[in-house]
């Protein structure tokens, strides 16, 4: 299996499965430029856990793995693995600042509920994977 790539939008390009906001892109580009990794991007992924069943994760990654979907949006390369893509399709990565500081978040149209801290979510009718997800937000 090979990677699927979505270039920057110019005209009639298929809709990107994942995007990043303007502010999120500014923050990501700053972090990527300081990472010291050539051709690095932001890997966005889903893992089981969190108080709502699934938990978002993000990391700076300079590897493109088999099965990855690679999206170039607002100058940022977003990498999503095959397993996470169905739960992230249509999502937007954003950066939010508040009184507690700031951080990246995912605006996910597939999430039917999420915990108060905004790091975990559940999809419609989905059980928590492996019986996880009963803990509170402090368990992140």
TrEMBL record:
InterPro entries: ATAP (IPR016092), ATAP_core_dom (IPR000361), FeS_cluster_insertion_CS (IPR017870), HesB-like_dom_sf (IPR035903). Residues 28-118 form the Core domain. It holds the Pfam family Fe-S_biosyn. It comes from the Bacteria. SUPFAM superfamilies: HesB-like domain. This is Heme biosynthesis protein HemY.
